[in-house]
């Protein structure tokens, strides 16, 4: 029985996929996003150790809410793809019960070696939806914002497109960093090359997780940055979906 390192569980989530969802926040992440609202999930190997059987028993108790709303189970984080064997067994059990499955991932640990690809493609057999967090389209800006370049992350998104796995694209809009028309247009062009996008979500930057940085004695790097205006959020959504919408309309 596979075990996973779990940070926390949200039993009635409404923002991480369709319907009411049972959201597993896994422990461990390779990125160090300056806007992260869960820095307490970064440490690999920490958290509560839980096995698939016990998690499935807990999931079953929330089935009426999920079934009535068209919901399911979402693995978030942290970075859930750091624990692929555990996630595969969990999603396989969900598929056997007819439960919708989703992964919320930045693709931060995506690798193109044969072993990783085999494990990842096995997981995708039991995955109904991937929420793909694209942080920044510019390579150097991405590294400054997250600590890593984005080459492998863009390949992660392309791999999901090649496999025709349904995705929702998510982009955090940060004034002065990601909220720049040039970068929004470039990211929109990239999204337009993917053939599996069902939705594009613009997530306005917020400061709700600052207290966690303080509790961990970490200096918050975006001190003084305020959330974007509604107008800028609307502008970003239009620019990110322009090529995606054109492709859908012409097909």
How is this structure best described in words?
A hairpin with a 7-residue loop joins strand 1 and strand 2. Helix 1 packs parallel to helix 3. The protein is globular and about 45 Å long. The model has no long low-confidence stretch (mean pLDDT 95). It is α/β, with parallel strands linked by helices. Helices cover 39% and strands 21% of the residues. The chain has an 8-stranded mixed sheet with strand order 3-1-2-4-5-6-7-8. It starts with a strand and ends with a helix. 40% of the residues are buried.
Outline the fold blueprint.
Elements: E1 3-13, E2 21-26, E3 48-51, H1 52-60, H2 63-69, E4 72-76, H3 84-96, E5 100-105, H4 114-124, E6 129-133, H5 139-146, H6 151-162, E7 167-173, H7 181-192, E8 197-204, H8 210-215, H9 230-250
Parallel strand pairs: 2-4, 4-5, 5-6, 6-7, 7-8
Antiparallel strand pairs: 1-2, 1-3
Helix pairs in contact: 1-3, 3-4, 7-9
Helix and strand element order = EEEHHEHEHEHHEHEHH
Mean pLDDT: 95
Radius of gyration over C-alpha positions, nearest whole angstrom: 18 Å
Straight-line N-to-C gap: 45 Å
Oligomer: single chain
Total number of beta strands: 8
* Helix/strand class: alpha/beta
Short structural summary:
The chain is of the alpha/beta class and 251 residues long. It has nine helices and eight strands. An eight-stranded mixed beta sheet has the order 3-1-2-4-5-6-7-8.
List keywords for this structure.
alpha/beta, 8 strands, 251 residues, eight-stranded mixed beta sheet, 21% strand, globular
């Amino acid at each position: 029985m596979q075990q996973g390192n779990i940070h926390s569980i949200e039993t009635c989530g409404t923002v991480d996929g369709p319907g009411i969802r049972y959201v597993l926040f896994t422990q461990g992440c390779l990125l160090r996003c300056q806007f992260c609202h869960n820095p307490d999930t970064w440490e690999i190997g920490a958290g509560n150790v839980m096995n698939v059987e016990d998690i499935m028993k807990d999931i079953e108790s929330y089935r009426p809410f999920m079934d009535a709303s068209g919901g399911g189970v979402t693995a978030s984080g942290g970075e859930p793809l750091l624990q692929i064997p555990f996630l595969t067994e969990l999603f396989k059990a969900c598929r056997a019960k007819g439960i919708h499955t989703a992964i919320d991932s930045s693709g931060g640990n995506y690798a193109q070696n044969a072993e990783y690809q085999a494990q990842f493609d096995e997981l995708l057999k039991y995955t109904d939806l991937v929420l793909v967090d694209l942080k920044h389209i510019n390579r150097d800006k991405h590294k400054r914002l997250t600590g890593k370049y984005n080459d492998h992350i863009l390949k992660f998104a392309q791999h999901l497109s090649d496999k025709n796995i349904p995705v929702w694209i998510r982009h955090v809009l940060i004034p002065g960093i990601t909220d720049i028309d040039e970068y929004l247009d470039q990211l929109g062009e990239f999204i337009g090359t993917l053939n599996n996008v069902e939705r594009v979500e613009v997530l306005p930057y917020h400061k709700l997780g600052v207290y966690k940085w303080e509790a961990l004695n970490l200096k918050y790097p975006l001190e003084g940055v305020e959330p974007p205006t509604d107008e800028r959020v609307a502008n970003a959504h239009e620019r990110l979906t322009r090529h995606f919408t054109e492709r859908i309309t012409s097909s």
